[in-house]
Amino acid sequence: MALFSVPTPVTTILLDIEGTTTPITFVKDVLFPYIKENIKKYLLEHWQEKECQEDITQLQKQAEKDSHIDGFVPIPSAISDNETENMIQAVVDNVYWQMSLDRKTTALKQLQGHMWRSAYITGQLKGEVYEDVVPSIRQWRELGFKLYIYSSGSVEAQKLLFGYSIEGNLLKLLDGHFDTTVGHKVESKSYRNIADSIRCSPENILFLTDVVKEAFAAEKAGLHVAVVMRPGNDALTDEDKSSYCCITSFHQINFPSENN
């Protein structure tokens, strides 16, 4: 595959995570299974802590909202210490149920985020990145480019992944993070919001993603885009490949300043 030459106006690179910097399988085969395998142990160990109790309260409130959904799992309030074990099991069952439906409720993401934080800090988890990522972003920084992350995962989850990566702490290489609080990734307005937030013109930003719908939204907002084709990512159609610049590695990205 040929080199992708970045347009001269670009000063900033915006990166997706899943399928772009990090294998999709890391989330599906590592992060999510970790929650399922360790949630009961985590709740037993942290039950008395304020943060854990706040997580439970949010899950209870979400369960009340979900009572109309077929198969929903309620979370009762513990009236006595004797009922704590039943309540913990109810939380476990509720989390399993939400995850089986691939729900992304704030309450679920909050508990998952706290569990992952604990696992990263204790070394049970390390964030995965493709082997071309770190050498490339180091080079881009040296060339003077600003680097930002935009992912559907929370900013906290992003910082954990890059802060405790297999390549060490990569946060110092990044200028900032965005999640869906800035808008959904398939909406053009989200990319304009990011451009406004970093005080940058859309035409000065290159967005790298593996999702064509995101590339379309970003391009519509005035950003430059390239679609990343990694093993395990959704296959692109011939139309997709003809509509967008496609790369299989960050090493294929060529900047004008490299030729000076």
**Largest β-sheet summary:** 6 strands, parallel
Number of strands: 8
SS-based class: alpha/beta
List the strand order in the largest sheet: 4-3-2-5-6-7
Total helical elements: 9
Low-confidence runs: none
State which percent range the strand residues make up: 5-15%
CATH class of the largest domain: Alpha Beta
In whole angstroms, how far apart are the ends?
A: 23 Å
What is the CATH architecture descriptor of the largest domain? Answer: 3-Layer(aba) Sandwich
CATH superfamily of the largest domain: HAD superfamily/HAD-like
Report the CATH topology name of the largest domain. Answer: Rossmann fold
The run of helices and strands is EEHHHHHEHEHEHEHEE
Rounded to the nearest angstrom, the radius of gyration is 21 Å
What fraction, in percent, of the residue positions are helical? 40-55%
Describe this structure in words.
31% of the residues are buried. This protein is of the alpha/beta class and 260 residues long. The chain is built from nine helices and eight strands. The strands form two sheets. The protein has a six-stranded parallel β-sheet, sandwiched between helices. Strands 1-8 form a two-stranded parallel ribbon. The chain folds into two domains: 4-22 and 128-259, 3-Layer(aba) Sandwich (Rossmann fold); 28-121, Transcription Termination Factor Rho, Rna-binding Domain, Chain A, Domain 1, CATH 1.10.720.60. 45% of the residues lie in helices and 11% in strands. This is Enolase-phosphatase E1. Keywords: Amino-acid biosynthesis, Cytoplasm, Hydrolase, Magnesium, Metal-binding, Methionine biosynthesis, Nucleus. It is found in: Cytoplasm; Nucleus.
